[in-house]
């Protein structure tokens, strides 16, 4: 019996209508079960073998791995099923309803990045999957927007060993072969409060934080001088002081001060090394004020990623897309997918400028173009003789 599949627009509509917000705050966090169930149904009907995998250290989230074709190597098309929270009252329409206007498809996840799965499914639907001599895998991961625990767990499982991988983040169909990482740390100074008329009876947390910031600025300079990659528009690791708060009154010695900072390391500077440098630069102050300085992780970081612009896969995707390989400053799941041993690129429709914004949209000019390019890439990886 012939199976009927939703067309691209209907697939977009159903995926967008299925909320899958990922947030660190429990009250905002949602399951991605509805999205992976939809994808599993559609892909099973196309002949894929689908497996849902619970992701540890999440609130009931799941990865979905789908496979069609036999043999070694092949291609992995990867993406995340979650979205960021939306700004209440700032959208012009319901974020969970696909709205077509001015050659754009609006909706939460249309661009970043549930829509990518609809385009992948349409591309596969048009292909002779019986001719695959190498497997095609589709990974739908959980919690990319927060912890990246889905991709991290999948990489650790080593369940597959594709030769090539594409992560369908919105890059304007430009192949991205390198990006920075992300580390977000909190530093808390715990002093002793007291009356401002006798400073010696307290320990002013703001004054200690002033010294801490001085050391952090030295670390910032060290990073800029010792780590450099000219391919980036900002060719050195950056450090940003994003939040500071301390004290409650002018006539009280400040007993507590908090600083939140963001560091974006280059490839070649793993997060573990960066954390060690942070501790090292504050070690002398920690000895001077024992027990007063604590460093904590605000949320899980993301490693930097580096592939090769001149690799076979990079050059093929660049040639077919008519776009030169490039680097970006934001972070993705690429460093974890790369751990599978595959040539990995970030490549997908839409612009990162629309991601995480009210009235997120995908320009409809990308739809047929992406489907056609996906068909060519799948053909090269899964059908064409090596």
TrEMBL record:
InterPro entries: AcOrn-deacetyl, ArgE/DapE_CS, Bact_exopeptidase_dim_dom, Peptidase_M20, Peptidase_M20_dimer, Peptidase_M20A. Its cofactor is Zn(2+). The keyword Hydrolase applies. It is found in: Cytoplasm. Pfam families: M20_dimer, Peptidase_M20. Its main location: cytoplasm. Signal peptide: none annotated. The keyword Cytoplasm applies. Keywords: Amino-acid biosynthesis, Arginine biosynthesis, Cobalt, Cytoplasm, Hydrolase, Metal-binding, Zinc. GO terms for biological process: L-arginine biosynthetic process. It is an enzyme of class 3 (hydrolase). GO terms for molecular function: acetylornithine deacetylase activity; metal ion binding. Residues 177-288 form the Peptidase M20 dimerisation domain. PANTHER family: ACETYLORNITHINE DEACETYLASE. HAMAP family: ArgE (MF_01108). This is Acetylornithine deacetylase. The lineage of its organism: Bacteria, Pseudomonadati, Pseudomonadota, Gammaproteobacteria, Alteromonadales.
